[in-house]
Amino acid sequence: MAAAATSRTPHRAPRRRPSTARAVAVLVLVAVAALVPLLGPSTALSGTGEARAPGTAGITFLRTVLFAALCVQLGEVYATRLARRVPGAPLERAPRSWAAYAAVAGIVAALGLASVVATGNLVPQRLSDMDLGGLYASRDGRLALLEVNAFVVALLCSRSRRPSGAALPLAAVIVAEALRPHPPVEDSALVGTGLTLVHLTCGVLWAGGLLQVLRMLRLWRTSAPEAGAAVLGLYARVAAVLFAAITVTGVCSTLRRMPPGTVLDQLTETAYGRTLLAKVLLVAAVAVLALVARRRLRRAADPAAACSPARWEVVALGAVVAVSALLTALPLPIRW
């Protein structure tokens, strides 16, 4: 018995390492998500002479939660559809769904943002500060209510026999987020809405899809490693297209906000520009990690070799989500 116990000991230690690495990755992601709303606004606005709007940190946090909820839910739908294209993928052994939890988080975040709109874009201090009826009278109010209702429908879909039906209400949330920063009085509002729509959709599928694909790969690493590798490879090919679309729409949106002759100055002298620069650097880091993961996937016999950089890619994408939320709460750059 003692010999048997001794022989089992070396096999237990390696199993703890992946869980430890995942725990560290989750802690890093949570820390970044918390620090960006707390420190991001003051850091970005420091020395710019721009005024900090009330509740910037809270709005940033709520939008981070809302974007993360979109990523988790749509990522599950997207990754499942990719897996269905792989012969032999054990879809009956899919990872446990997080969609319901994400939908609840989305409802809470959307309600918080709706309360801000109901208070005239100020953080409410008491219930009497909010004009709930006024939400129906303004464009921003109607969009906020649309997001709340969409997440409620997505929650109901996640508990139904067809959880993929949540894609439709979640698409409505993305449309609302694309319409919100581009009011009709803006020059070429339709163009701006279209760019934001494509940019946000591709970003959500990129981040959420990778998270779910890695969960599949981890669950199938012993029972169906070939299927897991095939799903990751299929995701990698589509992710290249998503990255190209994100880059193009991001550049076009930047040039709409900042005329070409002022981009370099505004990237360092305005809060919006500084945050945008931080987002660009993070996306560049994500691209490098993606290339490393794809190269390992092609060359390594074990698809698990690509998981390490891909996990850090998810963490970096989480930081991108938080920085993107901060961008929505900062004052827009002045068109010089």
Question: What does this molecule look like?
Answer:
By secondary structure, this protein is mainly α. The chain has helices spanning 2-45, 56-84, 99-118, 139-158, 167-179, 189-219, 225-257, 263-269, 271-299, 307-329. It starts with a helix and ends in a 7-residue tail after the last helix. The model is unreliable at 1-18 (pLDDT under 50).
Task: Give a short summary of the structure.
This protein is mainly α.
Structural class: mainly alpha
In round numbers, the mean pLDDT is 81
Please state the CA-atom Rg, rounded to the nearest Å: 21 Å
Give a count of the beta strands, DSSP E runs of length 2 or more: 0
Helical run tally: 10
Q: Beta-strand percentage?
A: under 5%
First-to-last CA distance: 79 Å
Could you name the ranges where pLDDT drops below 50 across 5 or more consecutive residues?
A: 1-18
Cα shape: globular
Helical proportion?
over 70%
Query: What sequence of helices (H) and strands (E) makes up the elements?
Result: HHHHHHHHHH
